[in-house]
């Protein structure tokens, strides 16, 4: 791939960060919005009220909203990209709360227990300094072991880490890889060296939300990649698996994520652990994972330090229906 081929990927255009605001009449100045922002987009002002920094990254995850105990934070505009390679479709994608539930006859209903668990689940990144009992970790593992998989191939295995020394080694190794890539990405002279690393079939590593935000946060050491969690479960996938290991590991991991929440512990996906394969011998020697197995992702587990869950708006793209007795496609714009 030449630089001209990948320039639209590595030098995105039309990127608009999310904008949030604080109602100062309601705000108590507790600072939980600042602590719960993974990219540190917020800061405390001279008036002891939080506000967004002059330069920041915000990808409309709404972590600030769910942490606020007095609902003082609201949305001004959402993250979107209106042109170029990363243009969102439509521009901007509308964000909507869950549609009110209805029963089979179309009458108003209530969310059931499973729906509420799905809709309120959030990635938790702030944990107490408190161990997670192995009895609970084993229940989370069992949820993953009993997940569905393509052809029942069950292409996963788990590595559980509670050793803080090993976690620190992993944090430093991930930081070394990511800071190197991010450093090249940020520099207009060196970014062209990344051209050969871009896979046009799966360019997601250079999505602005990851390249600018996620990698930037790790490089600046805003937080360690494993987020000071007391336990981490690495999900390894068999590269020979039916349909590929990623989707199977995703199904498995979401089972684990939801069960962790149900037990009172919380979880966060940590995909950055996959870059440990770029550190010579680390995965084989430190974690005992050898081909055909590879790290797909991991889950950080722990007790939440404060409330970090709740329903928030999500992107809503038009849904196309082909109904029985219809005359063709019907587009539901919600």
Descriptive overview:
The protein is α+β, with helices and mostly antiparallel strands. It has helices at 3-10, 32-35, 63-67, 113-120, 134-145, 164-186, 208-219, 245-262, 282-287; strands at residues 15-16, 19-22, 42-44, 50-52, 73-77, 80-81, 95-96, 156-161, 231-238, 266-269, 293-302, 314-315, 319-321, 330-332. Helix 5 crosses helix 8 (245-262) and helix 6 packs across helix 7. The mean pLDDT is 95.
Topology:
Blueprint: H1 3-10, E1 15-16, E2 19-22, H2 32-35, E3 42-44, E4 50-52, H3 63-67, E5 73-77, E6 80-81, E7 95-96, H4 113-120, H5 134-145, E8 156-161, H6 164-186, H7 208-219, E9 231-238, H8 245-262, E10 266-269, H9 282-287, E11 293-302, E12 314-315, E13 319-321, E14 330-332
Antiparallel strand pairs: 1-6, 2-5, 3-4, 7-12, 8-9, 9-11, 10-11, 13-14
Question: Can you tag this structure with a few keywords?
Answer:
334 residues; alpha+beta; Alpha-Beta Plaits; NADH Oxidase; 2 domains; two-stranded antiparallel ribbon; 14 strands
Span between termini: 40 Å
Beta strand %: 15-25%
| Overall average pLDDT | 95
Estimated radius of gyration: 21 Å
Specify the helix fraction band: 25-40%
What spatial order of strands do you see in the largest sheet? 8-9-11-10
Report the CATH superfamily of the largest domain: NADH Oxidase
Instruction: Give the total of beta strands.
Output: 14
* Structural domain count: 2
The CATH topology name of the largest domain reads NADH Oxidase
The low-confidence parts are none
Task: Return the string of H and E elements.
Answer: HEEHEEHEEEHHEHHEHEHEEEE
Instruction: Return the structural class.
Output: alpha+beta
How would you sum up the major sheet? Answer: 4 strands, antiparallel
């Amino acid at each position: 791939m030449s630089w001209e081929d990948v320039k639209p990927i590595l030098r995105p255009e039309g990127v608009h960060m999310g904008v949030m605001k604080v109602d100062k009449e309601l705000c108590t100045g507790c600072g939980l919005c600042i602590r719960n922002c993974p990219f540190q987009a917020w800061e405390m002002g001279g008036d002891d009220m939080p506000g967004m920094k002059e330069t920041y990254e915000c990808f409309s995850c709404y972590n600030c909203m769910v942490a606020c105990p007095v609902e003082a934070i609201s949305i001004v505009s959402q993250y979107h990209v209106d042109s170029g390679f990363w243009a969102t479709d439509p521009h901007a994608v509308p964000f909507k709360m869950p549609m009110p539930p209805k029963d089979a006859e179309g009458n108003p209903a209530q969310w059931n227990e499973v729906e509420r668990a799905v809709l309120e689940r959030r990635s938790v990144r702030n944990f107490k300094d408190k161990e997670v009992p192995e009895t609970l970790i084993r229940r989370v593992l069992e949820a993953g072991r009993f997940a569905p998989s393509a052809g029942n191939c069950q292409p996963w295995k788990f590595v559980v880490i509670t050793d803080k020394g090993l976690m620190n080694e992993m944090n430093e190794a991930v930081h070394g890889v990511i800071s190197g890539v991010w450093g090249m990405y940020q520099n207009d002279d060196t970014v062209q060296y990344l051209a050969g690393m871009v896979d046009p079939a799966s360019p997601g590593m250079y999505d602005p939300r990851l390249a600018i935000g996620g990698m930037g946060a790790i490089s600046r050491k805003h937080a360690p990649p494993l987020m000071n969690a007391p336990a981490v479960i690495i999900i390894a996938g068999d590269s020979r698996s039916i349909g590929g290991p990623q989707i199977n590991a995703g199904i498995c991991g979401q089972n684990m994520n939801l069960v962790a929440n149900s037990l009172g512990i919380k979880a966060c996906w940590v995909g950055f652990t996959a870059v440990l394969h770029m550190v010579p011998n680390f995965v084989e020697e430190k974690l005992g994972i050898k081909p055909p197995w590879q790290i797909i992702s991991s889950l950080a587990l722990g007790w939440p330090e404060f409330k970090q869950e709740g329903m928030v708006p999500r992107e809503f793209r038009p849904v196309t229906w082909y109904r029985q007795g219809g005359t063709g496609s019907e587009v539901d714009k919600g």
